[in-house]
What does this fold into?
Amino acid sequence: MCPVTEKPFISLDYRSGPVVEATSGQKSFKLLAKVSAYPRPDIQWFKGDKLISRRPEFNRMRLHQHYNLEIRDVHPEDAGNYTILLKNTAALLERRITITLIVNVPPQIHEKEIAAPSSPYRRGSSQTLTCTGYGRPAPNITWQWRAWSPCGLNSTQRM
It folds into this structure.
């Protein structure tokens, strides 16, 4: 009998596409790659050009045995390009793909404190109202005005 040996190979592809979306505050999100390889290659994940390691800035990220990268407690700053690099140095094989992570942020409106006017606004005068909002994707902000009529009574009149 003759032993059969398989030639080393690495096949790497997207499992969910080159662009994926998570939501800020999500407990866990996995970046998934479809990998078929023999023998098992060395694996590295990068965020931008930084190797994801045990450094404090990557303490919420964990590599799983099936080549996936888990991000726990997703934050807006987790958005970016992630590259998975697979290597078989003995066979001089190397494959990489980059996955872009978009982190959606629910709309938020921030009220800005403003000083009380030194004198009452004059009827019919022009005023500026400011709304500061944030979200990803950017929220649509719609202003609505509800007219009201002041009560004809003042504090000194009785009913």
Observations:
- DSSP finds no helices and eleven strands in the chain.
- The radius of gyration is 28 Å.
- The mean pLDDT is 87.
- Residues 53 and 135 are 30 Å apart (CA to CA).
